Amino acid sequence: MKSKSTVEFGTFQRSNLSEQIAERIISMIKEQQLKPGDLLPPERELAATMGVSRPSLREALRALSIMNIIENRQGSGTYVASLEPERLIEHLDVVFSLDDSTFQELFEARRIIEVGIAGIAAVMCSPDDEEELNAIHLKSVESVNDSIVFMDCDLELHNKILQITRNPILSLFMRSVTKLSIMSRKRTNEYSDVRQQTVLDHSKIIQAIISHNSDEAKNAMKEHLDHVEKKLNELNKSK
């Protein structure tokens, strides 16, 4: 456990105070001033040390708890959590349900990660991978009039492209992105024109991958994400 003498919390502006408190605690974890398993000071002491009100502190701690960054142990206190990636992404979809503008950031992330993944998959694709890609795509075509089944096929295809890279680090990054992208898929896959366009886009991506054309695979994936984001923006503007 860190004492007040070894942990400096700094000062805060009045606006968005609870958010600033949460960000400061997260920064301390990043800087390893606080580590997984560390016990935070009692609420009264922590509020006094940070120079903030207890209600603002409680709000910040509640947000950090929802994010699985800290955990409350009854009768023991509040601790920095284990910070395992799987736990940290559990509730991120809530953020997307509350703020439509965050979808733009999601697509920025997907362009950086998934476009690169498509390029790698084109290099790594084996005959067995080619067979699986075509089988998944066939299921997509057959389910184009069923939005629920089609979304499952959509996710399966993107996951298969990821698997072809044989890169566990990329898989770790994509775990959170995929979870969040389900929120946008639920909105766009309801529309027949989106599903029809996705079938065409996926066909281009698959052909580029099985042809081992990395540049074409990346371009096809970017074009696909552009199409989906454009539709999502149209839906958000029409609300």
Summarize this entry quickly.
The chain has 239 residues and is mostly helical. The chain is built from eleven helices and two strands. It has two domains: 68 residues, Arc Repressor Mutant, subunit A (Orthogonal Bundle), CATH 1.10.10; 146 residues, GntR ligand-binding domain-like (Four Helix Bundle (Hemerythrin (Met), subunit A), Up-down Bundle), CATH 1.20.120.
Topology diagram in text:
Layout: H1 17-30, H2 43-50, H3 54-66, E1 70-73, E2 77-80, H4 85-88, H5 92-98, H6 102-124, H7 127-142, H8 147-164, H9 168-188, H10 192-210, H11 214-237
Antiparallel strand pairs: 1-2
Helix pairs in contact: 1-3, 5-9, 6-8, 6-9, 6-10, 6-11, 7-8, 7-10, 8-9, 8-10, 10-11
What key attributes describe this structure?
239 residues, disordered N terminus, Arc Repressor Mutant, subunit A, Four Helix Bundle (Hemerythrin (Met), subunit A), 11 helices, mainly alpha, two-stranded antiparallel ribbon
How would you sum up this structure, described in words?
The chain is elongated. The chain has a two-stranded antiparallel ribbon. The chain has 2 domains: 17-84, Arc Repressor Mutant, subunit A; 92-237, Four Helix Bundle (Hemerythrin (Met), subunit A) (Up-down Bundle), CATH 1.20.120. Residues 1-6 have low confidence and may be disordered. By secondary structure, the protein is mainly alpha-helical. The longest helix is centred in the last third of the chain and has 24 residues, at 214-237. The protein is built from 11 helices and 2 strands, in the order H-H-H-E-E-H-H-H-H-H-H-H-H.
